[in-house]
Specification:
The complex is a heterodimer of chains A (about 575) and B (about 600). By secondary structure, chain A is of the alpha/beta class. Chain A is about 30% helix and about 15% strand. In chain A, the strands form five sheets. Chain A has a five-stranded mixed β-sheet, sandwiched between helices. Chain B folds into four domains: about 30-125, de novo design (two linked rop proteins) (Up-down Bundle), CATH 1.20.1440; about 135-215 and about 540-600, Fumarate Reductase Iron-sulfur Protein, Chain B, domain 2, CATH 1.10.1060; about 225-320 and about 470-530, FAD/NAD(P)-binding domain; about 320-465, FAD/NAD(P)-binding domain (3-Layer(bba) Sandwich). In chain B, about 45% of the residues are buried. The chains are: A alpha/beta (about 575), B alpha/beta (about 600).
Chain lengths: ~575, ~600
């Protein structure tokens, strides 16, 4: 039971719980204290000194983001002293920030820009100089040091409490203090998972994804090239946010209409290949489960490329536990460049497969050297984040609110409700269980029978009995939770048969490639969109997807067939991941 | 032109002097920063003192600053270090006055001693200096005790939790509350404002009030047996932690009781025996087997122990005494400090009634001997030290207490002859010294031209340092360097698998807290060697730091109750803090675990 204390904010007496910060207490009274580095649940180190307030009895100001209220405390949030101090601190921050708003990817939703506007920032009184921008811009995650304001959010979000990789670390001291890749590594040789959580937590344009829009536009403009774009499940939960569309408006069919305006030739749904993943991964699980002694346990999902990088970098002894099934993105590319190309009579060498992903690690996955199984270069040519596709729509001057929904192309444009929920934590597990049940029991379960695996808890577990077989499953999202789960498995504290991991907390709906939103409810709200779509889907079982039936009949034969193995499965040992030396 | 000015301490001058004082205090309260960065700022500051006459000082110091900045900015190349070195040398060799040449010498010392740090900056554009903790007191404590945490628990009245939190990193919470040399206080950030917090006194305040201590938390038994040779602070700490981890430690102690120098080096008026006994009993309750009166190398061979145990930790301390090297040193009436304090430690009190005692030495042990002598009935206790009082390694407060109790101090006097009559000591002849040149930062002394004088006395106590009885271990294959047992950084003994060593036998005489810290390192290594990864954890909550006004406030010191009727009185002399004093003193804590760099990444480790 938390005690309540009596405090005074701007002359107003209030009673608040004693574990509240000044900032939260003020917010409860509709008093807005501006803040910059603070990020709820991630960063409260009080670095920026913007949220400072006046404390009665003290000449000095205190940060409101990380100081708790106490009985008798009296604070003033908007005095002349406070305003002038905040203003000067913001000027200091700007004096070391490369202010290039017009050409900055974050312009329009940059927290620093917004704060400077709100605080009526005028001409700076200080000499300006920014750190130089030195980075390999070919990798998926790019850090522009000239825009870094040393808020420390990236350091904390990559730390043991959240993403548990610790790629970002403090570097140098005093006025030269900055952020760098830990242990003096260079990024491309580090065990970074490219999950992109640092990007969606960065308040400025200092962290961003590699922008592949230009290359895609060149392909669209080339008449000899057939562009095929696929839309990942979670994209439909968020793509309209930066365009001012409601979740109801921003359907996948509206996105299809926009993509056709931009000039993409064919629009497919990654939901289709998510269903394909379930067929392959579900069958693989049953194969492993019925030949227990031949495999390492538990089986781990393989659809999250950041998770694969995590396992390869931190727990290379568990690579064998990963399902060999490719991710939905990884499956659709080779299906397009083989089955579909043959069917359409298009030279696969002239096809460019582009994907819209909630993810920065998918850019890395697209470039994995042994994911070229179709034989025509990379199976996936470009993986765009949702942010990039939104920028592409904007720069094409398309007003989505004036568009009518359009169907996706067939046959690779059809997906089930089971595939849609891939975008939320627990979704892959639920979809797999729905089909595994059918494979074992011979009949469909209630599609909502496995509801225990839903929800935003970082580590969930459940146990199901299917025809006398007991399957123990666990789901983790957020790499720190995954790490705890792995440690518990290694220590023998828990035993599971099948484990789903999504690197981003809440799953792909909160992915590092999604539109940047400071709403803390984003993972929940977007997840609800997906579960709502599942509920009203015509098909809710991957094995009932008519296109899946068709593609097996016409091309693959059956799950785990030789052709499946060649095109839909991969060898995770086939490429080198920098390890952290553990 | 005005050549003379009436001295008039104007306000401005006072203010500048105040600024110098503030700077001094700030530097004193700083943990060792990056030597490169510090040198950069130092040469710039020294440059401001230059009158500007001489080239090498006026321009040289400035260019040094520019070059070192280049290193710090990651823009230098290794060859720039040669330029820096040559430039510093030039300033040192050719400036006309101390402002210049001393500045050059300081820069030269920095570039020579810290070349690796300069190179690290050049190679990585990063600073290689790492701190154990961003919290200065925690970083300053060799064992890394969570000082802000236990201060907060103490002021919240959670004394038992405070003691538990201390024991996580330092099992000898009660002993250190009385005798710790408190290196934490030297770097206390409060010193930047006024004075460091009296941390040790607060620890004692918590200990004095902690009653309901629960039994040590123990992990599941591993069945692994670990021999601990030596029952001092390092040995007992290691055994305690090993027992908490579920291992089975056995301590082999050559004396009658456990405690090492805490018992056989520190008299009970500083560390009451009942406190030490109850603390050791508590630690042993974790599950330590104790074998006393057994000397390894004599009563049992090291090899036999190694045979019987899964791992061995050697922490035999530094218990053998240094000799004066004078004739008649074995005469009746010459006694070593080690011998005296050992007798007192076992409560076998010799009778010094009406004796005149001379103590030779300048460390805490010399002070302890003198004060003990008075308690054993001596009519006088004179401390003879060959350097200056300010050079004494004894804590100033200890020296003050000894003098207040009636001891006298004869500094700048070196013993030259022990006078004997009928085989018994009758005096010590001492030679007056004068201060001489500085070597290794310490002023040396040399004999003055005066004639030596003889102090008549019945007893001479020799307290000029201890050394390690390492021969038996050298014979068993340990590496020995200057008498100290040699270990790797993780405290393992190279060439002897499963054998570890630590404490004063590996460092030479140091402090209890340093010995305890080395036990922590060894325990981690032993646990890993045995195939485990146990953690020692504090399970409680630390009260949140509150943003409160920080008015200037002086430091509350403890004081010694001075008695002139000392004979037979071994009761504790230090008076602990009152509640009023403790609350005020804890209120001065700046909570560096929450404010400043401590706010990064959580600020504390609740387990290790």
């Amino acid at each position: 039971m938390v005690e309540r204390v009596n405090i005074t904010i701007d002359g107003k007496a209030v009673s608040v719980p004693e574990d509240m910060t000044i900032l939260a207490a003020a917010e409860g009274e509709d008093i807005k204290i501006p803040s910059l580095c603070f990020y709820w649940g991630v960063n409260d180190c009080g670095a920026c000194r913007i949220c400072c307030v006046e404390l009665e009895g003290s000449d000095q100001l205190v940060a409101s983001c990380n100081n708790r209220v106490y009985e008798g405390m009296s604070v003033k949030t908007d005095t002349d002293k406070v305003r002038r101090t905040r203003y000067t601190n913001l000027e200091l921050i700007l004096s070391q920030h490369e202010v290039k708003c017009t050409s900055c990817v974050r312009s329009g939703y940059c927290q620093l820009q917004e704060l400077a506007n709100d605080m009526n920032m005028g001409e700076l009184r200080f000499e300006t100089s920014a750190e130089p921008f030195v980075w390999n811009t070919d990798i998926p995650v790019i850090r522009d040091a000239s825009k870094c304001i040393k808020c420390m959010r990236c350091v904390h979000v990559c730390d043991h409490e959240h993403q548990a990789v610790g790629i970002w670390d403090l570097k140098n001291r005093a006025s030269r203090k900055t952020i760098g890749v830990s242990n003096n590594q260079v990024m491309e040789e580090s065990p970074c998972t490219y999950c992109g959580q640092c990007i969606i937590h960065c308040p400025t344009g200092a962290l961003r994804e590699r922008d592949d829009i230009d290359a895609v536009l060149s392909d669209i403009a080339n008449p000899d090239i057939t562009t095929v774009i696929q839309i990942a499940p979670s994209v439909r939960a968020a793509w309209g946010e930066p365009l001012g569309l409601s979740h109801d408006q921003a359907t996948v069919k509206l996105l299809a209409a926009a993509l056709r305006r931009i000039g993409f030739d064919y629009i497919f749904d990654t939901d289709f290949s998510a269903d394909l993943t379930i067929m392959e991964e579900g069958s693989e699980f049953i194969e492993r489960f019925t030949h227990r002694d031949d495999y390492a346990w538990p089986m781990l999902t393989s659809c999250c490329p950041a998770w694969i990088r995590y396992i390869k970098g931190q727990h290379p002894d568990m690579i064998e536990n990963l399902s060999t099934a490719k991710s939905p993105q990884g499956m659709l590319g080779p299906v397009i460049k083989t089955y579909w190309a043959e069917k359409m009579g298009i030279d696969a060498g002239n096809i460019r497969v582009i994907s819209i992903m909630p993810c920065t690690a998918k850019k890395h996955e697209a470039a994995i050297p042994n994911l070229q199984d179709a034989g025509f270069g990379p199976d996936t040519d470009y993986a765009l984040t949702v942010r990039e596709i939104d920028r592409l729509i904007k720069s094409s001057f398309i007003d989505c609110s004036t568009l009518q929904e359009e169907e996706l192309d067939s046959p690779l444009g059809i997906g089930t409700g089971a595939a849609v929920i891939f975008g939320a934590t627990g979704g892959v597990m639920e979809a797999a269980l729905r089909t595994a049940y059918k494979l074992v029991a011979g009949e469909n379960p209630d599609p909502d029978a496995f509801f225990e695996v839903r929800g935003l808890d970082g580590w969930k577990e459940a146990q199901y009995e299917i025809n006398g077989l007991v399957v123990r499953v666990a789901i983790a999202s957020g790499l720190a939770n995954a790490e705890k789960l792995i440690q518990a498995i290694k220590a023998g504290e828990v035993e599971y048969d099948f484990v789903e991991v999504m690197s981003c907390p809440g799953g792909c709906v909160n992915g590092g490639g999604q539109p940047i939103s400071t709403s803390l409810a984003r993972a929940f709200v977007r997840g609800e969109v997906l579960y709502g779509l599942d509920k009203k889907s015509e098909y809710r079982f991957s094995h009932e997807n008519p296109s899946i039936t068709q593609v097996y009949e016409e091309y693959f034969g059956a799950p785990l067939s030789e052709r499946s193995h060649h095109l839909l499965h991969t060898d995770h040992h086939g490429w080198v991941m920098p390890s952290n030396g553990k | 032109m005005q050549v003379l000015e009436v001295s008039d301490p104007k306000q401005a001058k006072k203010l500048v002097e105040q600024m110098y004082e503030d700077l001094e205090r700030r530097i004193a309260a700083s943990t060792a920063n990056c030597p490169v960065e510090f040198t950069a700022i130092l040469v710039k500051m020294l440059n401001t003192q230059s009158c500007g006459k001489c080239t090498s000082c006026r321009i040289g110091l400035k260019q040094l600053g520019v070059l070192i900045d280049k290193v710090l900015d990651g823009k230098a190349e290794p060859k720039d270090l040669d330029t820096i070195e040559e430039l510093a040398k030039t300033v040192y060799l050719s400036a006309d006055c101390a402002i210049g040449y001393e500045g050059g010498a300081q820069a030269l010392r920095s570039i020579t001693a810290f070349k690796d740090d300069y190179l690290y900056h050049i190679k990585h554009n990063n600073c290689g200096v790492q701190f154990a903790s961003p919290v200065p007191c925690v970083s300053g404590c060799p064992a890394g005790v969570d000082v802000p945490g236990y201060l907060a628990l103490t002021v919240a009245g959670k004394y038992a939790d405070a003691v538990h939190l201390i024991r996580k990193d330092n099992p000898f919470a009660a002993a250190c509350a009385m005798v710790c040399e408190h290196p934490c206080e030297f770097v206390c950030r409060r010193g930047m404002i006024d004075d460091p917090i009296n941390i040790r006194a607060i620890k004692r305040y918590a200990i004095d009030r902690s009653t309901d201590e629960q039994a040590p938390a123990k992990a599941e038994s591993t069945g692994k047996k670990v021999a601990v040779i030596g029952g001092g602070p390092a040995g007992v700490s290691a055994a305690y932690w090993l027992a908490c981890m579920g291992h089975e430690p056995t301590i082999f102690e050559q004396r009658k009781q456990l405690g090492g120098m805490l018992r056989y080096g520190i008299p009970s008026y500083r560390l009451p025996r009942e406190r030490l006994d109850s603390e050791i009993a508590y630690l042993a309750s974790a599950g330590i087997e104790v074998k006393t009166d057994i000397a390894v190398g004599k009563d049992i061979s090291f090899e036999a122990i190694r045979q019987d145990f899964d791992a061995v930790y050697v922490a035999i301390g530094a218990h053998s005494d240094n000799k004066l090297g004078l004739e008649n040193e074995d005469a009746d009436g010459v006694m070593s400090a080690v011998e005296l304090l050992r007798l007192v430690g076992d409560n076998e009190l010799p009778d010094f009634t009406d004796k005149s005692v001379v103590v030779v030495g300048g460390g805490n042990v010399a002070i302890d001997c003198a004060r003990t002598a008075l308690r054993l009935g001596a009519k006088s206790a004179k401390i003879v030290y060959r350097r200056r009082r300010s050079d004494m390694t004894a804590l100033p407060a200890e020296i003050d207490a000894a003098l207040s109790e009636g001891c006298s101090l004869l500094d700048l006097n070196a013993p030259v002859e022990i006078k004997v009559e009928d085989g018994k000591v009758c005096g010590l002849t001492v030679q007056q010294q004068i201060v001489s040149t500085v070597s290794n930062g310490r002023a040396q002394v040399k004999a003055a031209q005066d004639t030596p004088q003889t102090l008549s006395c019945d007893l001479i106590l020799v307290a000029i340092g201890q050394k390690i009885d390492s021969q038996a271990f050298a014979d068993s294959g340990f590496g020995v360097n200057r008498g100290c047992l040699v270990t790797a950084d993780d405290s393992s003994v190279v060439g002897l698998e499963g054998v570890f060593a630590g404490g004063e036998c590996t460092t030479g005489p140091a402090s209890a807290i340093a010995a305890i810290a080395s036990a922590k390192t060894a325990v981690k290594a032993i646990d890993t060697y045995l195939g485990y990864n146990h953690v020692i954890t504090f399970g409680g909550d630390i009260p949140a730091a509150l943003a409160k006004p920080k008015p200037y406030c002086g430091r509350t010191n403890t004081y010694e109750t001075i008695s002139h009727e000392l004979a037979g009185d071994f009761s504790v002399t230090e008076k602990g803090l009152s509640e009023e004093e403790a609350v005020q003193e804890i209120g001065r804590c700046l909570r560096c675990d929450h404010f400043g760099p401590g706010a990064l990444r959580g600020g504390r480790n609740l387990s290790w």
